[in-house]
């Protein structure tokens, strides 16, 4: 069907309007079934937490994502575990052997200084596309609005392709309160002072996704999306759900 007037979506090799799914152990056959129909709606696949280390047939999973032009990478928890044990060289060697070209640098659980993370970005960016994450998984920890803005901009300036705003797969930390409410003051600060096209907002629930779509338009970058929710999210982006039906045809600030 092609007769409605809908918001214009980015297509192909997107640099914004990104959908990043979270793979917390999806079986290979199930992934392939979804990707055959819906691969055009997915840009990035995070193999969540540290699950890549124990995933059966990990090489086949990586190859499957690559075959559908979806960029796989390992969750930040695995990076933090390797950092704790001084195994980052082994980790990056493994990523290269697997054909994973993206790496996440985070401090969601382990306290890694901003300066150390920036140094690691400089170390990794010649060989990888680097994604960094800002915010803690501990919902008792609060960052000032100005710290969110400063940290994101410094990580981008260091060479990150994107910065993820922490939200967890539950939507109860980072940019969300412990009861799942969006911290709108933080989002407002970020949106005024950061290039939104370089931010991936973790938005695991439909409620969170629709907030960001209504706030920033169809081409906002969203992460921690469940594979089974990909088609619904695309419909939401196009104003084909009640909560986004009257969405203004805005686009992200790409300047």
UniProtKB/TrEMBL annotation:
Segment forming the signal sequence: none
Sequence similarity: Belongs to the phosphosulfolactate synthase family.
Protein name: Phosphosulfolactate synthase
Organism expressing this protein natively: Fredinandcohnia quinoae
């Amino acid at each position: 069907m092609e007769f409605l007037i809908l918001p214009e979506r980015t297509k192909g090799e997107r640099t914004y309007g990104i959908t990043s799914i979270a793979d917390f152990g999806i079986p290979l056959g199930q992934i392939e079934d979804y990707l055959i129909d819906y691969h055009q709606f997915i840009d990035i696949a995070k193999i969540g937490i540290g699950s890549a280390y124990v995933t059966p047939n990990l090489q086949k999973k990586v190859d499957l994502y690559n075959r559908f032009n979806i960029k796989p990478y390992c969750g930040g928890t695995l990076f933090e575990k390797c950092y704790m044990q001084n195994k980052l060289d082994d980790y990056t060697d493994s990523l290269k052997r697997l054909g994973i070209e993206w790496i996440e640098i985070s401090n969601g659980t382990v306290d890694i200084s901003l300066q150390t993370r920036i140094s690691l970005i400089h170390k990794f960016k010649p060989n990888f596309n680097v994604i960094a994450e800002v915010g803690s998984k501990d919902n008792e920890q609060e960052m000032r609005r100005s710290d969110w803005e400063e940290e994101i901009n410094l990580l981008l300036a260091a060479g990150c392709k994107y910065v993820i705003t922490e939200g967890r797969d539950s939507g109860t930390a980072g940019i969300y309160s412990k009861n799942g409410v969006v911290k709108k003051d933080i989002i407002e600060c970020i949106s005024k002072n950061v290039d939104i096209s370089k931010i991936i907002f973790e938005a695991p629930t439909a409620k969170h996704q629709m907030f960001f779509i209504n706030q920033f338009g169809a081409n906002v970058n969203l992460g921690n999306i469940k594979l089974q929710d990909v088609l619904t999210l695309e419909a939401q982006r196009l104003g084909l759900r009640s909560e986004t039906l009257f969405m203004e045809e805005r686009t992200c600030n790409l300047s």
